[in-house]
Design brief:
The chain is built from three helices and 22 strands. It is mainly β. It has one domain. The strands form three sheets. Strands 3, 4, 6, 7, 9, 10, 12, 13, 15, 17 and 19 form an eleven-stranded parallel sheet that branches. Strands 1-2-5-8-11-14-16-18 form an eight-stranded parallel sheet, covered by helices on one side. A three-stranded mixed sheet has the order 20-21-22, with no helix packed on it. The longest helix has 13 residues.
Length: 269
């Protein structure tokens, strides 16, 4: 009996250690599993999820460049309209995010960003549902990366694609205020509104260059007449929603009124 127990113990000890992923919740008031996004990035292991609640998060000077571990997801709970990342303390430095194999970045507004705001160097990276406010360059990729349903305000070059991977880089359903540059390797670009003509973007089919018609006053929700709204594609393609935010306002309607009717309204004041 003792011999059998020894064999069983040896078999158990010989089994490989299973990697168990964990979700790290970060709240704006510091009441989550860890007090800051920086702490969550530092504490996380590969395959973990960092879930961020609504609010504005100031990234400290010592962590101005956040680099996720492989297969880590940084995801917002409430979407880009309510979840904002920016450099803290009025810093002039740009906030940059580094992504590698298997990482996901989803659901944030990233403010006051500069050169190479998001560096996606690896395969299986997904960047979706974000608003990236960059003064110089929004996303730089090298690998098989999927970039979809984002609003990228690139200033000059919004996306630069260096793709040495045998896989395919997919760029679809984005509003790109800027240019898509280089497009090395295997790249598929479809259903985008790209405002600056780019040699690697084929216009006239699913891609187009039109005013996205935001609601205005700092809002990036779409007007219901926007060419980026579902069903409004200028070429009739079934692209669905283009960009990270849905329709949030309608056109201003003008109802003709006689001067007498206007005077009555004025007299009632």
């Amino acid at each position: 009996m003792a011999f059998r127990l020894l064999i069983s113990a040896g078999l158990v000890l010989g089994l490989p250690t299973l990697s168990i992923s964990r979700t790290w919740y970060v709240a704006a008031d510091g009441s989550g599993d860890v007090p800051t996004i920086e702490a969550a990035v530092d504490s996380s292991d590969a395959n973990d999820v960092i879930l961020v609640g609504a609010g504005t998060f100031d990234i400290g000077v010592e962590e101005i460049a956040l680099r996720l571990k492989p297969n880590t997801s940084l995801i917002s709970e409430s979407g880009p309209a309510l979840t904002i990342l920016q450099p803290g303390g009025g810093l002039a430095q740009p906030l940059t995010l580094g992504l590698t194999d298997g990482c996901e970045l989803s659901g944030f507004t990233i403010r006051r960003a500069g050169l190479a705001t998001i560096s996606a160097y690896g395969d299986g990276v997904e960047i979706r549902d974000n608003i990236i406010e960059s003064s110089v360059q929004g996303i730089v990729t090298d690998g098989a990366v999927s970039i979809h349903h984002n609003l990228i305000l690139g200033g000059g070059v919004a996306i630069t694609i260096y793709d040495a991977s045998p896989g395919i880089t997919f760029i679809n359903n984005n509003i790109v205020i800027g240019q898509i540059d280089r497009c090395d390797g295997n790249v598929s670009i479809s259903c985008n509104d790209v405002t600056v003509p780019s040699s690697c973007v084929q216009y006239g089919a699913t891609n187009f260059n039109l005013d996205p018609l935001f609601c205005g006053n700092g809002s990036y929700y779409l007007n219901e007449t926007s060419p980026c709204a579902p069903g409004n594609h200028p070429n009739g393609n079934n692209c669905g929603l283009i960009g990270p935010l849905p329709v949030g306002c309608g056109p201003v309607t003008v109802r003709p009124m006689s001067w007498g009717a206007i005077k009555i309204l004025y007299d009632r004041r």
